[in-house]
TrEMBL record, chain A:
Residues 145-180 form the 4Fe-4S ferredoxin-type domain. Transmembrane segments: none annotated. Its EC number is 1.3.5.1. Belongs to the succinate dehydrogenase/fumarate reductase iron-sulfur protein family. It comes from the Bacteria. Coiled coil: none annotated. This is succinate dehydrogenase. Its cofactor is [4Fe-4S] cluster; [2Fe-2S] cluster; [3Fe-4S] cluster. PROSITE patterns: 2FE2S_FER_1 (PS00197), 4FE4S_FER_1 (PS00198), 4FE4S_FER_2 (PS51379). The keyword Iron-sulfur applies. It holds the Pfam family Fer2_3. InterPro entries: 2Fe-2S_ferredoxin-like_sf, 2Fe2S_fd_BS, 4Fe4S_Fe-S-bd, 4Fe4S_Fe_S_CS, Beta-grasp_dom_sf, Helical_ferredxn, SDH/FRD_Iron-Sulfur, Succ_DH/fum_Rdtase_Fe-S. Keywords: 2Fe-2S, 3Fe-4S, 4Fe-4S, Iron, Iron-sulfur, Metal-binding, Oxidoreductase, Tricarboxylic acid cycle.
């Protein structure tokens, strides 16, 4: 298939950027979206032009590095990561717009690559548990009710890709934070730091410049792991409990 | 990975979620008030006597513990405080959201719901200003055929005179449609913000409650004005 690509090019963090149009031909439907960009970059290399910078690591949908805004949809038209998106989801002759995640808290480093360090700092603020070192405890030492374990696992699927922020009209990171808080709040290991965690993480979230949540759910629709909006309710509940002291 | 020192609990009061809780709580005050107000308006169907007695009751309720109009003033103060809190948090979050994404997307679907809440809210604020001037503060009649103190001093007469004017009824229809949109998302959103929707079941129920409240409010509020416009109430 032949495609027209409109891609955001930006030489560095402080450089102005612009949309540049490229054509690619003979793209196979079985290629992943990133392989299609690899083909374009080989062409650019051959012509001696600067290849397009984009992030990826695992290319199997588990690391969360590869987020791109594709024609206005985070990770493109399917409910998956950009690396797991295939060209059969597009049609021959289509014009595809490719942009980086847009949020002040995710500054552009180059072209399509953004710095998601803000997520790491939110985790550093409270998204952890304290555990004694030494020999590992028995796996069944602390019993967990099945529904709580299921919900914790569901929330733990979040890969920190940032699609929720990218899709949110307010560039809010509540779905990401809700997933992390819910994951730990559902488990016995998360209890000792539960209240301190939520306060510190929410403070850090605001400090990073993310917006507030309007509960419209654009995040859950964009999330490649299908994290539901009810994790944000758990986040809000925990914060309210923490505030009551 | 290095970890940071935890913040003190009180600091989270000033965060975006703190603002949202303020917006949710004040919004729920409005919902209760609006339901009460709707009930009062429906008294118009029972005729002049019932409607005006109700308006008078609002002022004498609680006497002699409270002075004449005492409870009404309590309600007014609560509503005014809620309005200030609601609008303040709305504008603070709106400007924060604008700053959170200074470079916009070239291709992105616009978030209709968020825009409806914000611009719809501004419209409701203007409407409330107009509505209070018309029925509470100045008590003026927009009906050229019905003027004078007899109309202005009689709540029932003023309402009937007003809604016999088609453009005024249209304005109220528009305002109620805006209110319905505002409430259908707002009532759900408040429940989510207060942390009442932690299971998929509770989440679906919260959405349903939002739609139900907004449907009841629009229909209930629009019955008296439309009945007047079409001559069922004279
Ligand atoms: C078709 C719709 C409506 C009608 C016919 C209507 C009618 C009235 C009337 C007649 C009064 C004066 C009551 C009195 O002083 O005895 C009043 C007051 C008031 N209305 Fe409405 N109203 C409508 C919708 C709304 C809405 C949607 C809101 C707000 C969300 C609202 C907020 C108020 C407030 C705050 C007052 C002042 C209460 C006070 O302090 O006296 N109204 N309305
Ligand atoms: S909640 Fe979903 S969209 Fe957001 S960072 Fe986690 S996996 Fe990505
Ligand atoms: S490259 Fe790891 S999730 Fe896409």
């Amino acid at each position: 298939m032949n495609l027209t690509l409109k891609i955001w090019r930006q030489a560095g963090p402080r450089h102005p950027g612009e949309m540049v149009t490229y054509k690619v031909t003979d793209i196979s439907e079985d290629m992943s979206f990133l392989e299609m960009l690899d083909v374009l970059n080989e062409q650019l290399n051959a012509k001696g032009e600067e290849p397009i910078a984009f992030d990826s690591d695992c290319r199997e949908g588990i690391c969360g590095m590869c987020g791109l805004m594709i024609s206005g949809e985070a990770h493109g038209p399917e409910k998956t990561t950009t690396c797991q998106l295939h060209m059969r989801s597009f049609s021959d002759g289509e014009v595809i717009t490719i942009e980086p995640w847009r949020a002040n808290a995710f500054p552009v480093i180059k072209d399509l690559v953004v710095d998601r360090g803000a997520f790491d700092r939110i985790i550093q603020a409270g998204g952890y548990i304290s555990a004694n070192t030494g020999s590992a405890p028995d796996a069944h030492a602390a019993p967990v009710p099945k529904p709580a374990a299921d919900r914790a696992f569901m929330a733990a699927e979040c890969i920190g890709c940032g699609a929720c922020v990218a899709a949110c009209p307010n560039a809010s990171a509540m779905l990401f934070m809700g997933a992390k808080v819910t994951h730990l709040s559902e488990l016995p290991q998360g209890q000792p730091e539960r209240m301190a965690r939520v306060v510190s993480m929410v403070d850090q979230h605001d400090e990073e410049g993310f917006g507030g949540c309007t509960n419209v759910g654009a995040c859950s629709q964009a999330c490649p792991k299908g994290i539901p909006q009810d994790v944000i309710s758990t986040l809000n509940k925990d914060l309210r409990t923490a505030l009551r002291g | 990975m290095a970890t940071l020192t935890p913040s003190r609990a009180g600091t989270a009061r000033r965060t975006t979620i703190g603002l949202k809780v303020l917006m949710a709580a004040t919004g729920l005050v409005f919902v209760l008030y609006v339901l009460l107000h709707m009930y009062g308006n429906l008294k118009a169907l029972a005729g002049e006597e019932a409607f005006n007695t109700y308006a008078e009751h609002l002022r004498t309720i609680g006497e002699p513990m409270l002075p004449y109009g005492g409870l009404l003033w309590v309600i007014r103060v609560v509503l005014l405080a809620s309005l200030v809190g609601h609008a303040y948090s709305a504008f603070a979050l709106w400007s924060r959201a604008g700053n959170a994404r200074r470079t916009k997307y070239a291709a992105v679907k616009t978030a209709m719901r968020t825009a409806w809440m914000r611009w719809g809210g501004v419209f409701l604020l203007l409407f409330i200003g107009w509505h209070l001037l018309q029925f509470t503060i100045l008590k003026f009649s927009v009906n050229p055929d019905k003027q004078g103190p007899d109309v202005q001093q009689n709540p029932y007469e003023l309402v009937v005179a007003s809604f016999q004017v088609p453009w005024l009824t249209l304005l109220y229809v528009l305002a109620m449609v805006a209110l319905a949109f505002h409430l259908s998302h707002g009532v759900f959103s408040a429940q989510q913000t207060l942390g009442w929707t932690m299971t998929p079941h509770a989440y679906r129920r919260a959405k349903l409650v939002g739609h139900a409240v907004s449907a009841v409010v629009v229909v209930g509020f629009l019955i008296p004005p439309l009945a007047i416009l079409f001559g069922l109430i004279k």
